Amino acid sequence: MTYEDLFETVRDGVRSADVSFKSGHLAVEIKIEGEAEGVFYIELKDGKLYAEPYNYNDFDCRLKVSAKNFLKLMEGSLDPVFAFTLGKLKIDGSLEKALEFKEILDAVHR
Question: Which candidate in 36, 42, 89, 101 could, as Cys together with 83 as Cys, close a disulfide (CB 3.0–4.6 Å)?
Answer without folding.
Answer: 89
